[in-house]
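[Discussion] Sanity-checking designs against the backbone

I'm trying to build intuition for which residues belong where. Below is a structure token string of 217 positions. I'd appreciate it if someone posts a full sequence so I can compare it with mine line by line.
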């Protein structure tokens, strides 16, 4: 009877209280773990596009890469497709710089520096928009299209895939900036900012791989 009475008393003592916090085996918080798993799937998506690019480069015999333009090669003129390497280098510097400004925004939030948070996000968004505008200008002046052999198809597929990710990341940063201006973030509750920043770092790393693969090698 005493045991049953003790159990009833314990139940009555906890009646109306919140249930105990669940125990998680992972030390990584759920929002951060979720974005890491998502980015793992995104890395595999990029990997498939890189595989297609390297297959086109290795399987199709070319004396040089980028290959010669076929319409001129038929006339005995050897002219390669032109890649704006210097313009792509400028874009690389812009995107790498945006990673530093994004990191600055996160650190400013953790230090409860709201003005630094807004400034960091504003600069990151501006750099991301500049990257997209330069890439659009590159597409308009590059002189070949996705219909120009496997080289053109894989070039536009790989750089276009990354451009879409930049646009998505820029949209997330814009929403984060709006929320920052409205004061939604706190030093102890910053996952709403940290998740898009992690995504942005991933986009930056992927561009470095794209730049080295397409424009340098």
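Best answer:
Here's mine. Compare freely.
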């Amino acid at each position: 009877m005493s045991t049953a009475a003790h159990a009833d008393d314990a139940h009555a003592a906890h009646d109306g209280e919140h249930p105990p916090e669940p125990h998680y085996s992972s030390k990584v918080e759920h929002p951060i773990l979720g974005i890491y798993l998502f980015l793992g799937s995104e890395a595999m998506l990029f990997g498939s596009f890189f595989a297609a690019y390297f297959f086109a480069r290795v399987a199709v015999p070319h004396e040089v890469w980028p290959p010669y333009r076929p319409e001129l090669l038929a006339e005995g003129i050897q002219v390669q497709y032109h890649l704006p390497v210097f313009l792509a280098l400028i874009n690389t510097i812009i995107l790498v710089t945006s990673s530093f400004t994004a990191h600055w925004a996160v650190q400013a939030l953790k230090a409860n520096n709201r003005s630094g948070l807004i400034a960091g996000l504003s600069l990151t968004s501006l750099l991301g928009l500049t990257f997209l505008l330069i890439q659009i200008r590159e597409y308009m002046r590059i002189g070949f299209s996705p219909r120009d052999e496997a080289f053109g198809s894989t070039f536009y597929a790989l750089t276009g895939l990354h451009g879409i990710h930049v646009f998505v990341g820029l949209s997330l940063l814009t929403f984060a900036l709006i929320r920052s201006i409205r004061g939604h973030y706190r030093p102890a509750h910053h996952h709403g900012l940290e998740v898009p920043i992690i995504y942005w770092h991933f986009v930056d790393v992927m561009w470095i791989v794209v730049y080295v693969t397409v424009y340098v090698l």
